[in-house]
Design brief:
The structure is a single chain. Among the domains are: 51 residues, no CATH class; 46 residues, no CATH class. The protein contains 14 helices and 14 strands. The strands form 5 sheets. The protein has a 5-stranded antiparallel sheet with strand order 4-5-6-7-8, with helices on one face. It has a 3-stranded antiparallel sheet with strand order 3-2-9. Strands 1-14 form a two-stranded antiparallel sheet. The longest helix has 29 residues. It starts with 17 loop residues before the first helix and ends in a 17-residue tail after the last helix.
Length: 464
């Protein structure tokens, strides 16, 4: 059966309409340039490569280069991972197509790679998944994770969901800065590929008949670009790094008590360099040690010392900023400061309430985008489940519970008549696990020996 968009090829692109493709290419390339520049700024913070704000001249920056390099503390990664590690797709519910959707998901290794897309989306605001026909995949379709530095999506004017074009630009050899760049433009009826800087595009029909690049956005906005998890904490991170740099300078120059003396006549010696030139060099007057005596022959001479600089103020400032960052990002403070000591289960639950609420909010928007990925994949294999508007993503529980708490809650739910399969779902089982458990329970019930017949009742006593 021919796929939508493949009939009548090459269609409108055969009659000199390639200039329209160039317009799409220019617009998409401009959008990707803006998106990639923004993404690199966020990724710099996530990878601990952001610049330290230090008011110094260029020569001073060179002198303090080692201290600048050591003044990074990657708190941004902890803020991201606190959310990323809790958002795990456990399955899909698409009615009779549930198993097919999960089979496509696993055949594309998305049970692992969806974490890559979500991590990019949490850091930069954008994550991308490409769904396309793939004869090499046993399911006939593949889903791949794409980088926000290389891929983008264009939407219809006035719409946040209707995709009209997708664009990917990548280096054929990432290790060669001067290597060839390939650009791919995906429209509903055509796929255009440019190899190198110039030349005409290679045109091919789009067998999918739709734009299969889906953008994953944890924090979309009705106006403007989606937000990153780091938007609220970047200024605090800059302040922390600057404080750490100041502490490093204080540690290097003022963390030890320095002795001083007056009235000491300093000896000099003449040094001859390799070219025959001579210059004077001061001789260190004292070799300070625990078993050495300092002597000053000048009766007016004095000895003293400069006290060492205390670092408590710098440490307190960093700790205060970390608490501020934890409050703004709804990250539990014990995630960042490792200060959890003998906390009760209720205290931990209360501390993580904001994080759990944030994860539920992010999963709401990410789940809509993963549902779109599943619908596109089912469409490409001709599965009627693609039209199921009630399809949804099944997430693993993102709330922290001990095994005892979970079992106790499930037992109490069972006492009020909650069905067994609902309890399995609350226990974190995926739809596929529930099906397997149901089959196992049915086999156990069939293999169990029949219950013994009840003993006959004793005869009633004869009347007196």
């Amino acid at each position: 059966m021919a796929r939508p968009g493949a009939q009548g090829w090459p269609g409108r692109w055969a009659g000199g309409r390639v200039s329209e493709l160039d317009d799409w290419r220019t617009e998409a390339g401009r959008h990707l340039d803006w998106q990639a520049g923004r993404a690199r700024a966020y990724l710099g913070y996530y990878h601990g490569e952001s610049q330290v704000i230090a008011l110094m001249e260029q020569e001073e920056r060179q002198a303090f280069r080692r201290l600048l390099d050591e003044s990074h503390a990657n708190w941004a990664e902890l803020v991201i991972k606190a959310v990323a590690e809790r958002l795990t797709v456990a399955g899909f519910r698409f009615g009779a197509s549930t198993d097919q959707a999960w089979l496509i998901w696993q055949a594309s290794r998305m049970d692992a790679d969806h974490k890559l897309v979500q991590n990019d989306a949490l850091v930069t605001g954008h994550g991308f998944a490409l769904v396309q026909p793939d004869e090499a995949n046993p399911t006939g379709v593949s889903i791949t994770a794409e980088s926000p530095l290389e891929a983008t999506v264009l939407y219809a004017p006035g719409s946040r969901r209707r995709r009209v074009a997708a664009y990917k630009r990548f280096m054929d050899d990432p290790g060669d800065p001067g290597g060839q760049t390939t650009e791919v433009l995906i429209l509903p009826d055509v796929i255009a590929t440019w190899r190198g800087a110039g030349g005409e595009p290679e045109l091919a029909p789009n067998p999918a008949g739709l734009v299969g690049m889906i953008e994953i956005r944890p924090q979309p906005e009705t106006m403007g670009p989606p937000r990153s998890e780091l938007d609220g904490v970047m200024s605090t991170l800059d302040r922390i790094h600057t404080t750490i740099f100041n502490r490093m300078v204080a540690t290097d120059y003022a963390a030890f008590r320095q002795a001083w003396a007056t009235g000491v006549k300093l000896a000099r010696r003449t040094i001859t360099d390799a070219e025959g030139g001579e210059h004077q060099e001061l001789v260190r007057p004292y070799d300070v040690g625990a078993n050495r005596l300092l002597i000053n022959e000048n009766p007016d001479g004095r000895f003293g010392s400069f006290p060492e600089s205390t670092l408590r103020g710098y440490l307190d400032a960093v700790e205060q900023d970390v608490h501020t960052m934890a409050a703004i990002s709804q990250t539990p403070p014990h995630y960042l400061l490792a200060t959890m000591v003998n906390l009760a289960a209720d205290a931990i639950k209360a501390a993580e309430a904001g994080l759990v609420s944030k994860c539920a909010q992010r999963a709401l928007f990410i789940g809509e985008d993963w549902e779109e990925v599943a619908r596109v994949a089912l469409t490409l294999v001709g599965d009627p489940g693609a039209a199921d508007v009630e399809g949804e993503v099944v997430w693993r529980d993102w709330e922290t519970r001990s095994q005892g708490q979970l079992v106790d809650a499930l037992v109490k739910l069972a006492t009020i008549g909650v069905p067994r399969e609902v309890l399995w779902e609350r226990a974190g089982a995926s739809p596929q696990e529930i099906d397997r458990w149901r089959d196992m329970a049915a086999r156990e019930a069939a293999a169990a020996p029949p219950a013994p017949a009840p003993a006959p009742a004793p005869p009633a006593p004869a009347p007196a």
